[in-house]
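[Structure tokenization] protein backbone as discrete codes

[Encoding] learned vocabulary of local backbone shapes

[Begin record] amino acids and matching fold tokens:

___
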Amino acid sequence: MTSFSDFHKRALLQTSLSAAVPLRVLDYYEQGGPTAADVEAARVYGRDALAPHGDLLLFRSRKEGETAALFNGLAKALAVLAFLPGGVPPLLGASEGFDAQKILAGFFGQEEASQYCQGVLQRALAEDVPVWAACYLLGQEADPHAFAITTNLLATLSLQDLRDLRIQRYTNRGIGEDGRPRVSVERVTSRLLMQVASSDLHIAALVQQAVSRGEALPVCRLDGLQTEAWIRVHRPDLAGEGASHETI
């Protein structure tokens, strides 16, 4: 059962957010709106900061400034997500959520707010989200070669390729039947690696070293968070199917 004290704390947090989020929406309005990178940062904040430490919003941390920093981060993240279609649903029992279009309509009118938010969304969808990968020979994880997987390479992947990429945790490295690490040439990242090797001399050399050692290919691992950000921008029909951000 929720105590009166807990109810009071939730009500206070709700009131504080209802004042802070619109102000941050206005800040983003003056900056031209949030970018695709801002949206990804808000999502990561929810997973890495809010999920494990959200209780500190109701029960003040003993660490100086920690609760305030968490609240400011939450208000900023909610302001960013408020620009997405439909905004943020009601939280903490509130009657309304946070919708940037509705918030801005209160300042500038419905027509201007609608046109502005549509422009922000169109620009975010057109942004090119960078995706980086790391490549190394088995046993040489401490010295990876980082390189950009350009959007034209990722654009060659079908929806099923992207689903497989998630299942394979964004890497061609797995575990063999003997329990030892192995590299699979059948994985999506192996195909991408070979495409990059045609123009990247360093990767081409790593491939040659692997072949000379009797191994299939070097390990290739894409950044899972960046890949998912790219999917949300370029393949939104796949974005809602869920994702794994783990790598083996």
In short: The first strand starts at residue 131 and ends at 136. Residues 4-31 form the longest helix (28 residues). The chain has a mean pLDDT of 83. The chain has eleven helices and five strands.
